[in-house]
Structure formats: C-alpha cells, structure tokens
Amino acid sequence: MKNDVSKSGTASRAVERLVRGVATSDGAGVRLTRVLTQVLQRRLDPFLMLDAFRNENPDDYIGGFPDHPHRGFETVTYMIAGRMRHRDSAGNEGLLGPGGAQWMTAGSGLIHSELPEQEAGLMEGFQLWLNLPAASKMVAPSYRDIPPAAIPEFEATGGVRVRVIAGESHGVAGAVSRPETEPLYLDVHLPAGARFTQALPAGHNAFTYTYRGSARVSGTEVPDRHMAILANDGRESVEVEAIGDARVLIVAGRPLNEPIAQYGPFVMNTADQIRQTLDDYRRGTFEAAVVKSL
Ligand code: MN
Cα(255) to centroid of ligand 1, in Å? Predict the structure, then answer.
C-alpha cells in the first residue's frame, strides 16, 4: 500500500480520482476542455470551474468571448501562450500575455469581453472560477492585471521552478491572497525525475492538473491534461514527481460549505437570487463602474 501513514501523518494525500474533462466550446466557438465541471463543484468547493484551452488552429480560438456578464464569484485567467485582450462595461481594458494572469472579482456584476490579440500561433491557458462567500457576492466589481514579473517565483530542489499565483509555497507569498477561501494556485515546472512537495491544510479541497508531460502524484501516474482530485484523508501535503519534463498546476482552497445556485455566468446561493440577477441584468444594472486595482 502506498503512502501508508499514521492518522496524523503529514505524508502526501492520495489521488482519489483522475478526471480528463469534457471537450466543449464556449464564447464564440472557442474550443476548450472543461476540466472542473458542474458535477464537481461540491467536491471541489470553493472552486466552480476550470477550463483548459490549448489550440494551435486560430479557427478554434479566434472568436474569443464577446461581451457577457458575470455575478457572484471571481475568475482567474492564467496564460501560458498567446495574448488575450479584455474590456469591461466601465471602459477598462488590459492585455493578458504569456505567463501573466488576470484576477477578476465579478461581485455584484459586470459585462466584459475576452478576445484573442493574435491571428496565428498557439493560444494556451486556463480559467479558474473561485466562489465568493455569500457575504461577499455583491461587493463592487474589480479586477487586477498581473504581469508575468509580478507573479512571485522560486527555484526548489532539483531545478523545480514554482510560480505562486495565489497562496503561499515554501515561504513565498503569491500575487493574490483571499482570506475567506485561502486559495493556493501554483504553476510548477519540473525537470524529469524531480520531486516537489507542497503543504496543504488538511481541510482544504485540492487538485492537480498536469498540462505538460506526465507526473506521479503521491505515487499515482497522472497523464498529460488530466486532473487528479486529492483525497481529504487528513494528510497535509502533496508530492509531485515528474516522469519526463512536466508542468503541473496545484490548486487548493478552504470550502465555503454554502449552497451553490448557478445559472450560466451567474453563481449565487439561491434560485431567488438568480431570478433577481436576471432581472437586474435585463434592467441594465451591470453597466456600473468596475474598479481596476494595481
Ligand atoms: Mn468571462
């Protein structure tokens, strides 16, 4: 038996399940893989969705995501390759490039577009949706563009490179912190054979996503473009070992344990709040100002 430990051990959490995701398209025909789908929202609370996109053919991304609304949660876009321009209902805009991220708090609501700023070449990245607690769902909308140089990085043993988008890793604080859900979001680049261990609070839901090569997570092989859901088995870390050169996202957060009511781009707690949201949207209240924070 792998990873056999005493009940208070700190050994690596077991892999509970591998998830390949569902091929789909969204926006104006952007092909993507929905890795974290609606059926996993309770299991991976506070995360609501993870989309992975990696398209060489411009026909599969050129339409982008024209104007659409959001309310009640946060979107975290992380680019590996390609450029995406975003604009919102308050007139803000920004350009997201390779290695950069955008952290957007939809809060009470905004309308935005996310459109490719290229006509050829690879477009690759991820969009993660992080829920807001009931008490914060109607905060004023805001967003932050995080250029590549503003994402803290460090090198760990064995030539492992770690980019800390959110949370903390080996004493390095990430670009973003959120006290309510304490999200951890790491992009870990491992040379073949290297190992990396990340501490994880026992009560937090956690997963990895391998997006290059393949890796062993707590001894279980996780192929390219697969999510590994980590068991909530009381263990307080995860160990990733690269089989060939590999790149792995590690994501974790404290569950909110609140009801989730989703209707497309709106995520509230009750059906009544969704009805109110649709009403507000039709009345045009989503046109209000969006704050850009630096
Ligand atoms: Mn959007």
Answer: 23
